[in-house]
Structure formats: C-alpha cells, structure tokens
C-alpha cells in the first residue's frame, strides 16, 4: 500500500512587530520579560488587525531564564485571556528567534495549527543572579534547625559568599566567552582592526539613516513602563567619530586583541514577534502575506574551532531547500554578534577551499554583495536581546524586500555552542 505524503501548505508571514530595543538597565529596566512579551504580542496583533481568537498556538523563545515563569509562551496566552491556546518556549542561544519561527512553521506543516504567534524576549536587566550552591544548601539546612543548632549552621556561611554571583557569559564546554572566541577568529582569519571598526561605524550609520527615513518606526510597537511609554530604540548612534572608535581599548584580549565595545553587539532588552498562517487560512481571514518562508537550516559545529561560523554553515542548506542561490537574494541579513564574526563568515562564503573541505560543496557559496548586506544596519547598532534578534532580522528582511522591490532574502545568525541558523524568505504576492 502506497504511503500517503502530507501535503504541505505554504507558510505565510503576515507581519510582525517588535518593542524598542534598549540598552540594558535603561528604559525597559522596569518591565519584566513576561510583561514585555505580552505587550509586544498584544500591540502586534492590534497593529496587524489579527483577532486574538484566531491564534492556535504561541511559540516563544528566551535565552536568559525566567525562574518564576519558565514557559513564557503560555504566560503570554494567559495574559491575553487565551486560556485554550497552548504555548511552548524554546531556546537556541542567539538563534532562538529563528528557532521559534521554524517551530511555528512545523506546527502549521504538521496540521496542528493554522495561525501561530512566534517570537522571543530577553531582558538582561532582569537576569537572575544566583548564589553559590554551598550557601543554598546551608540555608536549606538552617530551615530545619533550631536554637544552638541553627546558630552553628548559619555560622558555616562565609559572609562574602552571601553576595550574589554575577551570571557567567562563558561557554561551559570551552570556558571562553563569545568575545574570546571571536578574538580567536580574528587571529585565524587575520581580520584587521580597521575593517572591524569600519563595519561597526557603517552599521550605526545605516541604522540611523533607516530610522530617519521612517523604516524602523513602522516595525516598533510601544511599550508602557512605570515611568511612561517607550517608543524608540536607544542604542543607535547618529554619529560615530572614527578616531574615537580607533582609540578604544580591546575588551576581551586586552593585550593583543582588536575587538572593542564599539565592534560588539551590546547587552540589550527587547522582544519581537511575527504571525504565521497557513496560506489557505490567511486567504480565508483576508490577509495578504508579506512574505513566504521557503526554507531554513540549523547546523552545529565543534565549538572549539571558530565557533561563530554558524552563518556560513547554515546558509547553503537553507538556500538549497528554497532551490535558489546566494546571488538570487536581493536582501542579506546577517546577525552582527561582532564585526569580526561577520567579516570571518563573509570570507568563508567566497572561499572555494573552505566550502569544499568544510561544507562539501563543489563551488563556493559566493561573495555577498556589500550593497545587499544589512542595508538598514545590524545588531551592533540596534542591540542584541538574544531571543528577540531573529524576529528583528526577519522583520527587517520583510520590509527591505518591499523597499528594494526584491524577491528573496536570506537571514542568518551564529549562536553560542557552535550553532547557526538561516532562513529564506520570499516576498509575498
């Protein structure tokens, strides 16, 4: 008996929205991750005129744990009074936003849902600050003690251990921070400091120009905080003095390094989301898709060797699944974790030997046209609220396809742990 194959309807991106991206401990400092997420979804649904009762599922991502609400997705549904809407929370480091969108796409492909909200949030300002395990164990024992035994138990605690531990940003497997891994790549690929600084300056310049032209405001939904509304990003610099940028000291390898605060994505608070629909459902509800999802890929590599090459490992497979080539893409959006990481990946895209030895390709992926790359700036300028970055990049790509009258966009991010993500979008029609 012949096996039936599931007919997969097209995956329609109706649109999306994001909160302002704010430098951590500034304008969004007083809004917790669940509140920020709920506001992002509520305002986005209102903007797109999507009725909340049409939502079948919420898929949300977060990288920084939210101990009181580990399943942020379900909390969003509850806050929106969508009591019968399931929610699932995912995490794939800096590729989490892409993962949430792909998860939502699979729910639609499998027939489990017709309309899904997918997004992500991270509020570094609200990151949980742990105590040492020994202190926790001692205090736990103290709860069961009385009298002199209680005094003896508490006396075992060193007062200095009562100070919270700052969250670690290093890789558990390698012991190095993202910046240290990026410095390794600088040395391996021999990337000059001047090129890194130039990319960082260009990122801010392009983001500022896009904001002045109104391209950024159309993506942002307002956020209410105890101190009032927040409606704008606050990390984009209008002007960057090249001489001042060149004078900044390296932050990850102070003696021999080249990566500075200016050429790194900053700690950021923010949320973003998109609405996906089955093509037939979109037509039924009267929505015109802004874009179609044509393919994606999530690879992994050994994190000990050039860990932040997730872009070049993910893009070829995503392009293959969409049955297109890099030169057919009118928009190229690469997450700027560090300027050095972007430059290293760009070199690998056009390196025939690398593509053959590491990717098993007969020819290089191809050179990225600088005119197509991050046309409205990237994460160095906007900031990087880990799980919200994927949504921002996808939103940018959707808007840019309309702006340049293009057909295809490739969006991609590297991620901690030697991970990567890429997603191909086709302009809606």
In short:
The chain has helices at residues 33-48, 72-79, 96-109, 133-143, 147-155, 178-189, 193-212, 242-247, 279-285, 310-322, 339-349, 352-357, 379-382, 389-403; strands spanning 11-18, 22-23, 57-61, 87-90, 115-123, 223-225, 228-230, 268-278, 291-297, 329-334, 408-415, 419-427.
Your description of this structure?
The chain has 429 residues and is α+β, with helices and mostly antiparallel strands. Helices cover 35% and strands 17% of the residues. A hairpin with a 3-residue loop joins strand 11 and strand 12. The longest helix has 20 residues, at 193-212. Residues 1-6 have low confidence and may be disordered.
Which structural traits does this protein have?
alpha+beta, Peroxisomal Thiolase, Chain A, domain 1, ten-stranded mixed sheet
Helix-strand layout with pairing:
Layout: E1 11-18, E2 22-23, H1 33-48, E3 57-61, H2 72-79, E4 87-90, H3 96-109, E5 115-123, H4 133-143, H5 147-155, H6 178-189, H7 193-212, E6 223-225, E7 228-230, H8 242-247, E8 268-278, H9 279-285, E9 291-297, H10 310-322, E10 329-334, H11 339-349, H12 352-357, H13 379-382, H14 389-403, E11 408-415, E12 419-427
Parallel strand pairs: 3-4, 3-5, 10-11
Antiparallel strand pairs: 1-8, 1-9, 2-8, 5-8, 6-7, 9-12, 11-12
> In which range does the helix fraction lie?
25-40%
- Please write the CATH class name of one domain: Alpha Beta
How far is it from the N-terminal to the C-terminal residue, by CA? 38 Å
- By CATH, the superfamily of one domain comes out as Thiolase/Chalcone synthase
DSSP summary, beta strand count: 12
What structural class results from the helix and strand content?
alpha+beta
CATH architecture call of one domain: 3-Layer(aba) Sandwich
Order of helices and strands: EEHEHEHEHHHHEEHEHEHEHHHHEE
Q: Do you know the CATH topology of one domain?
A: Peroxisomal Thiolase, Chain A, domain 1
Count, helices:
14
Shape assignment: globular
- What is the averaged pLDDT score? 92
Approximately what portion of the residues adopt beta-strand conformation? 15-25%
C-alpha-based Rg, rounded: 22 Å
Uncertain spans: 1-6
Reported for the largest beta sheet, the result is:
10 strands, mixed
